[in-house]
Description:
This protein is of the alpha+beta class. Among the domains are: 190-316, Rossmann fold (3-Layer(aba) Sandwich), CATH 3.40.50; 511-658, no CATH class; 675-835, no CATH class. It is 44% helix and 13% strand. The strands form seven sheets. Strands 4, 5, 17, 18, 19, 20 and 21 form a seven-stranded antiparallel beta sheet that branches. A four-stranded parallel beta sheet has the order 7-6-11-12. Helix 14 runs antiparallel to helix 15 (546-556). The termini are far apart.
Amino acid sequence: MLDAARVPRAHWRAMLANLEHEAPAMMRQRVEMVQRQVRENGVTYNVPADADGRQRPWDLNVLPLILPPEEWAGIEAAVIQRATLLNKILGDVYGKQEMLREGLLPPALIHGHAGFLRPCHGMRHHDDVALHFYAIDLARAPDGGWWVMADRTQAPSGAGYALENRAIISPTFPDLLRELKVQPLAGFFRTMHDSLTHWGRLCAAKGDSPEPLRDGESPLIVLLTAGPRTESYYEQAYLARYLGLPLVEGGDLTVRDGVVYLKTLAGLHRVHVIMRRVDDECCDPLELQSSMLGVAGLTQAARRGNVLIANSLGSSLLESGALLGFLPALSRRLLGEPLKMPSVATWWCGEPAALEAVVANLDRLIIKPSFSQLPQFAVFGQDLDGAAREAFIAKLRANPNNYTAQELVRLSRAPVWKGGSGSGLQPRAMGLRVFACATPNGYVVMPGGLTRVATGPDSRVLTMQMGGASKDTWVQARARVEVTRLKKHSITSADLVREDTNLSSRVAENLLWFGRHAERCDNIGRLLRVALNFLFNVRFDQRGAEWSTVEALCIRFQLLDAEKKPAAPGPGQTQSQGGAPAAAIFTDAEIESALLLAVVSPTVPGLPRQQRQLHRVASQLHERFSVDNWRALNRMVQPSARPGERPSQSEVMTILDDAAASLMMLSGFALDGMTRDLGWRFMSIGRRLERLQFQSIVLQRALAMDVNGNLEWLLELSDSIITYRARYRAQPEWLPVLDLLLRDETNPRSILFQIDGILGALRKIALTHGACGEHLLAPLKDELIALEPGADLNHGNATLSDLLNRIQLASAALSEQISVQFFSYTDGQQRKRTS
């Protein structure tokens, strides 16, 4: 930000003027807005080292890094040159290996690296591009010069976070973005998608199993993830949603006759391009390393040219820091020009002269493993003294090939905004990750990147695993930037799509369970609200027969622990009825304590635990939901209560009311924000199955209570009290209540409404995927409709209770049949559906 005379540089002056002339409260508001957006958008960076496996919120500082156009032009040219060079090296190492024969690369460095995958030798690459996506870690020295710290060539992460950073920071400084002519990022991702589409068409046409695409038909591009437990899973899901790609796991793909297919409910769909976020060695358990993350036969499919893998298998080899010292000579040999940006001084200890130089200058070096397979951490030479220093030098001399030394660079500092007490600008060490993608016409660089800053003033290493923070990166443009796009194939009327044909069985199953868990949250929240209203507002001696039924329902849904010793009821005690264990006896204080815990603590069965289960299922569907949908989900998950903390009655009821409102919002997204495609039908079936089972259980328990019991609680629990009052303007009675909750096809909470919805969805699915379970519910619907209002819809009718019990059992059987038919795949089932 400042030059040698401590005067603000020209590209920072507009930002500083903005900060200088606004009230301190405005900056606090900006910081709070950024933090709120990160939290509500659910932006996380998972840290495997965390003991509880929690998701760490993304740390985004409100101040951007600003780069002027002339400085960026030098960075851009250097990144393009370096990506081109590394792509040529990758092609040579897995091809003719001329650089090894000429001595420009030490054979021990290549063949000793676990990242050198021998099954990939001789693999074909369309347009000779093996490195489709590239990232480079840069650091700026205090004199302003940029240095390359590391190359990211296997499955570079961070571009999605850079895009999310821009989306969050843009509304914070909208005027400054325009004034400083900050270049947008969207064009880079369009170019990347267009390029992968181009190569996907070549795979379809030129592989050894050619299936040319129709004019206007797009190749199928998928993003392969290792799953929600990976560090950057949020970014992977975000990119998949932004680019419109299916987010798949290894189990979603299969290889048949050297061709990769996506396993969908409609059968097998050929995959042409895989953007992978799975490590090299885990991609193919057949030819590489045994792993549940990969796809058996993937290497063979890539070798035959039937699928493009970005980046190519084996590209992790280039991430070895030991290669940095050899790049200047390789650049002159392969490109005929020197490197435009130097790497940080690097010595591979496998060379005798380099080893002696490292030992002599150990204090100002950082020592890293040469090979990714070595379980070693970086060692700072200045931290070693005495016996520890001598022991480490002995290790270096014993296995010199295993170690690479780099100069310890004193990083340039960038301003960050520190909130709280003493808020203001503070300096922090900074590094920049820049991204490039390959196109048929060369490499294109994202006009920005992921700026990483140290959390403390003396940090020597920038890493997100250790809690590093990030900044948006603003690259100024000299003039309007024209983006050149590849020729696109037009979509004709014959190519219009009305269904999600790439819905995998895993995603469909998760959608069904998302619907079920969302409904369970609603059921538990409403039951807790009804039960606590009794405790808070109705004296024990004034409670009717309905209270024991509500208590029995709390036991049935594990909100109360039925494992209690028998005891005779005393003052303020009740004995559960309506099918609950006869030995379960609770005082009001015990019930209140248990139910309050079920409202605020995830350690017991209750609302927070169920909300977190819903969130876990939703995390498997991140790319399927809109940002607004995710905000509603993230707002719904309540923070855990501190041990020993007892919430007040008003706080508890507020939590339950907010939870009900959030779930209604989620329902609104499902009803008005999602297309009625196959995925929506499975989610709808999940919601209706869960509601059908819950309502069947509740009505069975209600029918078992005293005939004179008050029925308002039942209408409240079924969210039907307003409808009843609007229609009858009288106290609830059995006949109209049962008609409303059993046979009213217009009531979204009635048994008939659920059965109708399930049968309707099953019939739609049957049109393309075969009949499934309709016979389980259809006869029961006929029985329900045939009930006589005067004779059958009454409290003492045993036939009605039996019918509800059979409906409950049938819904459970239907759930099992759906799982077997759609979510359990065998070769025979797949081939039948494909034909």
